[in-house]
Every structure is written in C-alpha cells, then in structure tokens.
Design goal:
463 residues, alpha/beta, Rossmann fold, Four Helix Bundle (Hemerythrin (Met), subunit A), 3 domains, 16 helices, 45% helix, elongated, RNA-binding
Length: 463
RNA sequence: GGCGACGUGGCCGAGUGGCCAGGCAAGGGUCUGCAAAACCCUCUACCCGGGUUCGAUUCCCGGCGUCGCCUCCA
C-alpha cells in the first residue's frame, strides 16, 4: 500500500522496519481541558488507519501518549486553585470517555509523560554529552545549529524562521530557534531532580523518549495533527536523530484540521465545540462517520447539517445489516473486499472505501428484495464496517424497560417485552385490527423504537 | 514576508487524461392495509485564462478565491 509521507511530501510504498510488524506513534492529548471535535477527528482517523493496517495482517504496536505536564496545565491549576493532578485527572477522564464513545480502540501502550522522566533525562544527558544541547542556569536547550537537517520536515529554512517577527529572542539561547529540553524549576510548579538542576521537561522531549522506549529507533509511522508539524515534530526529529545518529521515524502522517464556520477550531481561541457535548446530542457513530467521510489529510469544515446527513447515511447502512440475522457464515464477497482494499491502499482513501460500502449495500438490498442470497455481501459488510468501526452500537433497552412495560400493559401483553409486543401486533395485523397494530407501532415510536414491517416479518430498532 | 493545502452538481464529498464515485436532499415510479424501509428512474459537476494533447475536471503556466503553519494547539 502507499501512503503520503509529510517527510518529503510524497507518496511512498509502505515498507516496514520489521517484516509484518508496524510501530506507530500518535501524538495524543495534552490533558489540560475538555476535548473538542478536533481531538476526536485525530483519534478516529488514526484509529481507522491502525485498524486497517491490522486488517492487512500487520502486527501493530500502537502508542498514543498522554502529556500530563506542561505550561497550560500548570496555568489552569493555578487559575482554579487546585493541583495539577486535579486538572490532569479531569481532562484525562473526559478524553477517555470521548474515545470510548467514539469507538476508538485502546492503544497498545498509553505512556504518560510524567512516568517517563528517567527516559527523558537519559536522552537529554546524551544530547548534552554529544554537544547537541547546553545548560544555562538550570534550563537545557537543544542547539539547532548542531543539527544541519533542521527544518526538513516542515520545510522551513532556519534563517527565514529567525527573521520571523514571532520568534522571541532570549539572550541565554545561542540561537533564537533553540528550544527547551528542560525548564528549571519554579516555585509551586511540579519538578523533578536532574543532574543539571531540578525542573520539568520541555514539551517535545517526551515523545522522543517514549517513542524510543516503546518502538525503538527508526520505527515506522509517526502521526499527529497537521498543526504539530512545526515546531513539535520538527523538534522531535532533531533531538532524536541528533542523539542516536539514526533516523527517528520513517513515515509521518498528519491529519487535517477541523474548521468551524471556515475557521480552525482551537482551544486557545475558544472557537470550539465540546466533543462530549456533541456526543450527547448526536449518535457517536454519526460523529465518527463525519470524521471519516473526508480524507484524513484534508481540512474538515464542521456543520450541524453534515451530522444529520451522516445520521441518515448510517441508517442506510444499518438498515441493510438488520435485514439479515446476526452471524453470517459465508466468505466475504471478493469483489467488494478487493475494491475496498484498492481504495484504502491508496493513502487510506476511506471516502472511496465508503463508496464501495454503499455500493455493496445497494446490491445487497437488491438481492434481498429479490429473495436472492446476500450472505457474501453481508459478510463483506461486516468486514468493512469492522475496519471502519461503523457498526451499529448494540443498545440494551434497560433505560426503556419501564416505558415498554407500560405499553405492554396498555395492550394486555403480560411479559412486557418488545418481542411479545410485536407478536401481539402481528396477530392484530393478521386480524386486520389496524387500530391496535398501528397503536403499538406509534406508542413504541414515541419512545424511540422504530417498527418496520417486511414481507418476512417485523423488525424493530432504536431510532 | 516565508512554507503549504485546497477550489467538483442543491449540500457534503472521492476520484480519473477519453467511460460509473458515493452519501444526503429533491422529483417520479414499483412494492405495500397504512407507515417506514428497500429497489428502479431523473437531477450528469469539476473556479477563471492560457498551454501540452487526437482528447483535460484530471498534466503544465498564470490569475482569482478560501484556508492552514511560521507562537501553546489534534
């Protein structure tokens, strides 16, 4: 398969370091505040990439870090008069909840920055020893002049950057572009002991240290948001490669930003939609589908309308699957699978893959309408939907139990189960008792259960 | 100023040098006690101007427009 490598800005055939295995590092959350829709996109998009690679047969080690020490966290704690732990815990819980509801699979490893201070100290030590870093009054900076390839990923020329008005010069730095590997401890801030003085790590060093620990040198895929290309990923590369003299990661994948009314969603500007709130209002899978309909590298403009659109599309998918009882024994339809793979093999063209899925659904529905066998198509559906994580959530009816019992009582159905209600309704229908049959359907409809009649019997699902 | 992305039918959104994306919405039809679903049909687009080509939405050049990064940010 081919993928687009930000490093070099070109499509490249995927060649793994170790045969059949893929090491993948995704820059996860800075657990500083509640996640917004943009965070969800990144999590979902790389979740699908990971699922697809596994579906191809690779053994994927998927590492997604948690940044639990940084300026913003400290600022938030100070602001609210609580500990940084409180901020971190609250935000992490929210991210975790959002991931779960979006169907994002758990990473193989989820390393926290503060649990890897030793690894960072070791890396910083190496950089100091080899002259790639220098300590000034408790701070340690990476010297970008010691790493000639600086700017290769983001295609920035250091001299252009230097002349940029936004770089704030600091007399203690040898070069205005040098960045902090270690920040000297300040009163009231979390800090750890280090040979060059107590302090806390800079932002970039954690990813270098943790990626090296869990994936080794020259691992396969490093991913994250487009906004991380510079400076975060550029700096990761510089410090990692300066320390080891070896390539850091082979393929760099970056997801496009999420826009709101044409403008980038951003925590810092408050121009955001809270992810958990969105998931309360809409079916999580519909939110997931919104993320997946646009190619992962493109900007995605969020709109309420798009979400309703996705809900309708989902109904179409699920409506097909509901027509066939659960497990299917057949082998998946080869043509559909192969078309899906062809799309996905070209830089994860999920939108193209979805096109195949909808074609499959139309053909499957057609066959079922004509009472032909659709087993192979259903099996292919399950396979594709599994890769994309778009399966219908199995919903229990616990929350509706009381209401269902009420309706059952109203129609004299003793058990209070949906199945018995529908049986009673079937009897009413065969007796042409439309008042009762429509009444049951309407009453169930009013509590969110949709009843549909088909030639081979009635089906129900949550609306 | 530097680096970069994008501009497709009512909306969303893939993709391709010559032939079909797909979804949603809309209209018509089939089926049906009604409803819903499903199926069939219709709606056939590719920012503008040049160029290359037998042929360009797709390649090249120029322009216009939108957006992103260059500062913490998925």
């Amino acid at each position: 398969m081919r993928l687009y490598n930000t490093l070099g800005r070109e499509f490249a055939e995927l060649r793994t370091r170790d045969e059949g295995k893929i090491g993948m590092y995704v820059c996860g959350a800075t657990v500083q505040s509640a996640p917004h829709l943009g965070h969800g996109r990144s999590a979902v998009v790389f979740d699908v990439i990971r699922r697809y690679l596994e579906w191809l047969g690779f053994e994927v080690t998927y590492v997604r870090n948690v940044t639990d020490v940084d300026d913003k966290i400290i600022a938030a704690a100070l602001d609210e008069g609580v500990s940084t732990d409180t901020i971190v815990e609250r935000a992490y819980t929210a991210f975790d909840e959002a991931h779960r509801r979006l169907g994002v699979r758990e990473p193989t490893v989820e390393p926290w920055a503060t649990h890897h201070i030793d690894e960072m100290l070791e890396l910083i030590g190496q950089l100091l020893d080899t002259g790639h870093a220098y300590a000034v009054g408790g701070d340690v900076y990476f010297s970008i002049r010691s790493y000639p390839a600086y700017g290769r990923l983001s295609r920035h020329d250091p001299s252009d950057l230097r002349s940029g008005a936004r770089v704030d010069p600091d007399d203690r730095k040898k070069d205005p572009l040098d960045f902090a590997l270690w920040k000297a401890a300040k009163p009231g801030e979390p800090s750890w002991d280090a040979p060059w003085g107590a302090g806390r790590p800079g932002w970039h060093i954690e990813c270098s240290a943790m990626a090296r620990k869990y994936l080794g040198v020259g691992f396969d895929i490093h991913a994250g948001g487009h906004d991380l290309i510079f400076p975060h990923h550029e700096n990761e590369i510089a410090q990692s490669e300066a320390a080891t003299g070896e390539p850091f990661a082979n393929y760099w994948l970056h997801n496009g930003m999420m826009n709101l009314e044409g403008e980038k969603m951003s925590k810092s500007t408050g121009h955001v939609i809270d992810l958990l709130e969105a998931l309360d209002i809409h079916r999580p899978t519909a939110v997931r589908l919104v993320y997946l309909r646009t190619h992962y590298r493109k900007p995605l403009d969020f709109s309420e309308g798009g979400l309703f659109d996705a809900e309708a599309a989902l109904d179409r998918l699920w409506g097909f699957r509901r027509r066939t009882p659960e497990p299917v024994e057949d082998a998946p339809d080869e043509e559909m699978i192969s078309r899906f793979q062809t799309a996905m093999d070209e830089d994860f063209d999920v939108a193209g893959g979805l096109g195949v899925l909808f074609d499959l659904v139309r053909e499957g529905n057609r066959r079922l309408d004509d009472t032909e066998d659709a087993g192979a198509l259903v099996a292919a559906y399950d396979e594709i939907v599994g890769v994309l994580g778009l399966g219908e959530e199995t919903s229990d009816l616990e929350d509706l139990g009381l209401k269902i019992a009420e309706i059952a009582a109203k129609y004299g159905v003793p058990s209070g189960s949906i199945g018995d209600l529908l049986e009673t309704r079937d009897r009413a229908r065969s007796e042409r008792n439309w008042a009762a049959s429509d009444g049951i359907r309407d009453d169930l409809g009013s509590i969110g259960i949709v009843v549909e009649d088909a030639p081979d019997g009635s089906r129900w699902h949550r609306g």
